[in-house]
Amino acid sequence: MTKAHIHAQTQLVHLITGNDLMTGDVIYLHKIKGFVKNISQASYWADGEDAARQLSLVEAAQDKITGLYLMKAKDNGEHIAPLTLKEKIRAYGPTVS
Amino acid sequence: MYSYTEFDTQFLTDRIAEFRAQVNRRIDGVLSEDEFKPLRLQNGLYLQMHAYMLRVAIPYGTLRAEQMRVLAKIAERFDKGYGHFTTRQNIQYNWIKLEDVADILGDLAAVDMHAIQTSGNCIRNITTDHFAGAAKDEVIDPRPLAELLRQWSTGHPEYAFLPRKFKFAITASDQDRAVIAFHDIGIQIARSPAGEIGYKIFVGGGLGRSPRIGRELVAFLPEADILPYLDSVMSVYNLHGRRDNKYKARIKILIDELGIEQSKAKIEAEFSLRKAQQKPIDPEMMERINNGFNVPDFSQVAAHTLASDRSISPGFAAFLDHNVSEHKDDRHAILTISLKEHGKAPGDATAEQMRLIADLAETYAYDDIRISHEQNIILPHVPKQHLLEIYIQLSSMGLATGNIGLASDMITCPGLDYCSLATARSIPIATQLADRFKARQTEEAIGPLKIKISGCINACGHHHVGHIGILGLDRAGVENYQITLGGDGSEQAVIGSRTGPGFSAEALFGAVDTILDVYLDGRHDPEETFIAFYRRAGMPPFKTALYPLDDLRPLPPSIEQAAI
Hints:
With 97 residues, chain A is α+β, with helices and mostly antiparallel strands. Helices cover 30% and strands 33% of the residues of chain A. In chain A, strands 3-2-1-4-5 form a five-stranded antiparallel sheet.
């Protein structure tokens, strides 16, 4: 896949994220597995309204995750990358040791 | 220091049991997050970027060795082996699990510590001069008053749900090391011409998005009136403080809106009622508090001169020059242990470092440890004869950096790496600046300089009162840093002025270099400090150097693109 091809395929997607109630760990929704810590395993939606509907269902159905919200990311066909620095730090950890 | 009574111990036991039950109800889903949040905040527990953050209270920044060892144990057992000392003399742990919090609070309670009211809309930690009890220039030790106010404010039912957080600071010296002008209430202990102790009280100071210098409420309040007077201030704030807008809810905004004269009138009206009704402070209780802060017995310590010690090594000379302050007893010194080793996150200490400091305090320094709002650790009573041995031991753990008051002794908030409120990173800015100063060996030449860095407009890094203040913001998704100059948190009380447009992280370091070049080139002589030069020359030479009219190049890439 060429760079131009990848660039052309990059699209904005929506993920559902929050924090684990007990540990505070950053988590992402996976449609089948539930909640995962690795953003690369997260499920995502191209349509923001679909994602919002899913968020409502998830919020109502469980209480072991706190602070759920939608976040935006880029999908270039190979991996998901958060859009903002804050979400990058949430996904990958502090930039300082 | 103050010794807990049976009442105090039972209070903590009951509070921990109450919070454990609240946590269990949250886990079981009986409490929603919205219901649980104010409860956990009042027990010092935040949910931050990666995990829960627990803020443990260190009342007026005073610790004994046993307590420091428990803080070390908590860092090791429940966190990642370190803690972060804050600008309010507390300690924060960044990687806490909810399920562990009640056990942590139990460990803290065993040594008379807690996390009560370190967050939430209540009266927070009462802070004071980190040199209290040792400073040559103090009227009296301010800590008994701080302890009285701690007891008065802890669990006070009327002040449990204020419009917003409320912060007190106390100084007992003309040289204000407690930043009282920038607190909701600042108290200066003074002595009247007749020799009586009383208080000058300031109100409505603060940093954050609306920085304000506190305004004088009363020039001299007699000692006996302190509690009814403060109750009056709190009562007026509780009644009239804004609850409709979180960003306008601090008392400084109320003072703005009412004006100082109307504010005083309301407070005095309340005071005239309360003073008549309020019982005097229990003299036995006050005596017990005072007895907790008696000056140690210095009589067995031999005199020692430090002049010849300077030749032992350049590192020790720098340590003596910068980290040692004059003590009221000339056989002793006040030692500031720097938590600002070049390249390390300012204010952080590992469990091993905490244990070493505990051992040194116990062995050499009367078991008395302080935390300063500048994120360093102080041993307030050190016999001069022991300074070399202490230096050697501190050196083994990266705690002997002789940079107190110099450019690398920066105040820095946790910033976007840890704090969910932040808009930019602050720690990498501080570490890279410090590394640059070290590499260029310029700190000694620059001299006294206070750089303060905040990762958002909440100003936890005190950037408004930095000689050089740095504020990190988000500009269209890219970190952008505004610089302010001329701030001063001392008794001079000045809010810094913005230089102009902000800088990307990469350009920021060059901007700081430019600022320092202006100073070094323009100062009369090395004795003219940066802040003295700024007061003389003003902003114009800095502005001209930072923003040349013909330099319209686009900003270089941000640190985000460089580091991620």
